[in-house]
Amino acid sequence: MDILDKVENYYNAFKGEKGIIGRSVNNRPIYYLAVKKAEKPKLIVQFSIHAREYITSYLAIKLIEDYKNSKSKASVYFLPMLNPDGVKIALEQNPLYKANANGVDLNVNFDANFGSGEQNVFCKASQNYVGEYAFCEPETRAIRDFTLSIKPHATISYHSKGQEIYYEFFQDEKRKKRDYLFAKSVSDATGYAIKSTPNSAGGYKDWCIQKLKIPALTIEVGSDSLSHPITKEHLDQIYKENKGVIDASVQTLTELICKKNL
């Protein structure tokens, strides 16, 4: 059973709020699964926006199961696979593929300094192509519309690799200080370093920070010494490092809300 089947089977068996936020270029469903325990905070956690990084979808299922049994109080919306077409291509044709079925790198297709990233390219490719315009792809429109409907207090995007956390995107100093507290809580939970990526743009994290003005993180799982795509033999270690992320996030977001900083 590959990860596409595993996500579908898990979705079908899931007891709780769930749904389809949209469909991919090739009409595959993009699922969400919600574990709702309180009105706030609300957190969106998305996985596998980059095709070859589908190890994060395996992690998604483990984190959902953990949060179902957690004592934390928040509503957490999990999107276990944002780019199912790309994952299929990575599994069956090109293991290093990152883009969607249209050759657009979804994590540079958001309206956040669109097209200004150092590694952006402007023709179809397996990675880094920004697309014809921001939100030209059904997958990015789907998560945009879902995010706007949920109105989360924060978002997390899971990627691989590097064991790093990114939280900055041209915030003012007040918001940067707030958002650093969120990043620090996840860094403490994982042991991952907080890093800057000043020359990137157009990502989901970037859009959440710039347009919605909420804290948003990218978490890169897996040692940088590993090769893409990271294989399942490394999942237990990745899970061990990340099993405290959701609880730590909820605690910090709750504190920020109580202090009226969010």
For the largest beta-sheet, the strand count, sense and barrel status come to: 8 strands, mixed
Strand content: 15-25%
What's the rounded overall pLDDT mean?
98
Could you state the order of secondary-structure elements as H and E? HEEEHEHHEEHEHEHH
What is the global morphology? Answer: globular
Radius of gyration: 17 Å
If helices are DSSP runs of H or I spanning 4 or more residues, what is the number of helices?
A: 8
Helix vs. strand class: alpha/beta
Termini separation: 42 Å
Q: For the largest beta sheet, what order do the strands appear in spatially? A: 1-2-4-3-5-8-6-7
Helix coverage percent: 25-40%
Number of strands: 8
- Poorly predicted spans: none
What does the secondary structure layout of this molecule look like, with pairings?
Elements: H1 3-13, E1 18-23, E2 29-36, E3 42-47, H2 55-68, E4 75-79, H3 84-92, H4 138-150, E5 154-160, E6 164-166, H5 173-190, E7 193-195, H6 204-212, E8 216-221, H7 235-242, H8 245-258
Parallel strand pairs: 3-4, 3-5, 5-8, 6-7
Antiparallel strand pairs: 1-2, 2-4, 6-8
Task: Describe this structure as you would to a colleague.
With 262 residues, this protein is of the alpha/beta class. The chain has helices spanning 3-13, 55-68, 84-92, 138-150, 173-190, 204-212, 235-242, 245-258; strands at 18-23, 29-36, 42-47, 75-79, 154-160, 164-166, 193-195, 216-221. Strands 1-2-4-3-5-8-6-7 form an eight-stranded mixed sheet, sandwiched between helices. Helix 2 links the parallel strand 3 (42-47) and strand 4. Helix 1 (3-13) packs parallel to helix 2 (55-68), helix 2 packs across helix 7 and helix 5 (173-190) runs antiparallel to helix 8. The mean pLDDT is 98.
